[in-house]
Every structure is written in structure tokens, then in C-alpha cells.
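Example S7 (C-alpha cells).
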């Protein structure tokens, strides 16, 4: 049996909040770019912009990138089209501070290599940044335990869209009937995989 894992909430504990982690460095960067926004105004504006993209994705499960959100937010905050380098710097700073809310359970770090001895493993996760999940897996010492890391931003579709599960099964080269999906949310990690022919 091959095991496909969700990432956030399954392999790592995390806070999905876009504000509670604390973003002083990102706010300082925003001010340095010329935006005259208080810290609270920055967080409120960022949350509004990201929530608008969430609503769009909820319609058809198309994924959006952090660079898209960053470009839209900075365009509004600066009242001009931001330079690509400024967007990249803003997103990198934001993700660095957001990552403070991600924690690595010791039990998972111990379990995954043991599972990898007898099973082929993959991560199938929704994320707005392609490097985020592989970076965490590397920091956990687990990247080499997985035969594939499939992210929604690279596929273009987020769970529970069938294309992301198909991409994972293709990457492993296995049929759905020989795979089980392990996750923590009902539609993305249970209904979606079941509809794709996997156990979940």
C-alpha cells in the first residue's frame, strides 16, 4: 500500500491565521517601499486581499500564488504597479514570519522514515508557494523519505480537484486502488481521494 499525506495539519502543526504570527519585519519592508499604513492597516488589507483570492479559488479549486496576492496587495498599498523584485521580497519576508507558526511533531519526524522502509510515500498539499513544503520537509529531515511532493500551486488545482490526486498517482506510477490518503480535513483529504478511487 502506498501512502499519500496531506501536509499542513497532518505532518506539521500550524496556525492558518494570516495575522497572529506577528509580521513586524514585513510591515517595516512595506513602509520602506513607501506605503503609509499602520501595522493594523497592513494586516487588515493583506487579509482582505488574500480572502478575495480564497473566494475565487472556492469556485473552481484553481490555485493562486503568493506572488499574485503580493502583487495585488502592494499595488493597492503603494497606489502603483510594484516591481517584481519588491513583490518577491515582500512575499519572502511574509512567509518567513508566517513560518513561525509551523511546528514539527516529534512523533511524525520519527514515524515517517519507518513508514518509508515498507511503503512509497508522497505529500499532496494545497499551498501558494512551491518551495514552502519541500523546505519544511528538508528542515524536518524527511524530504528524502518521500518519492514525490505534489503541490497545488505547481499542478494549478487545489484539493479536492481530481487533477491534484491524479498528478500524485502519476508521479508515483501507481493505481488509485493501491493508495491510501491520510489527512485532517473532510473534503480535501477524504471525499476527494475517495472520489479518485483511493482509500482515505
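Recovered sequence:
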Amino acid at each position: 500500500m502506498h501512502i499519500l499525506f496531506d501536509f499542513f495539519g497532518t505532518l506539521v502543526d500550524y496556525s492558518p491565521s494570516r495575522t497572529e504570527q506577528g509580521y513586524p519585519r514585513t510591515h517595516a519592508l512595506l513602509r520602506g517601499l513607501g506605503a503609509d499604513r499602520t501595522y493594523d492597516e497592513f494586516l487588515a488589507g493583506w487579509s482582505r486581499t488574500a480572502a478575495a483570492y480564497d473566494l475565487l479559488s472556492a469556485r473552481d479549486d484553481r490555485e493562486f500564488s503568493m506572488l499574485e496576492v503580493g502583487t495585488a496587495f502592494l499595488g493597492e498599498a503603494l497606489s502603483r504597479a510594484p516591481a517584481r523584485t519588491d513583490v518577491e521580497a515582500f512575499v519572502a519576508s511574509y512567509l518567513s514570519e508566517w513560518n513561525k507558526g509551523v511546528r514539527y511533531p516529534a512523533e511524525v519526524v520519527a514515524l515517517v522514515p519507518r513508514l518509508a522502509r515498507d511503503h512509497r510515500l508522497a505529500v499532496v498539499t494545497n499551498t501558494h508557494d512551491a518551495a514552502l513544503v519541500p523546505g519544511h520537509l528538508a528542515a524536518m529531515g524527511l524530504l528524502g523519505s518521500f518519492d514525490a511532493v505534489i503541490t497545488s500551486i505547481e499542478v494549478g488545482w487545489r484539493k479536492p480537484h481530481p487533477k491534484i490526486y491524479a498528478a500524485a498517482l502519476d508521479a508515483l506510477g501507481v493505481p488509485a486502488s493501491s493508495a491510501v490518503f491520510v489527512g485532517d480535513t473532510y473534503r480535501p483529504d477524504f471525499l476527494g481521494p475517495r472520489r479518485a478511487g483511493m482509500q482515505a
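Notes on this example. Strands lie at 2-5, 121-125, 148-151, 179-182.
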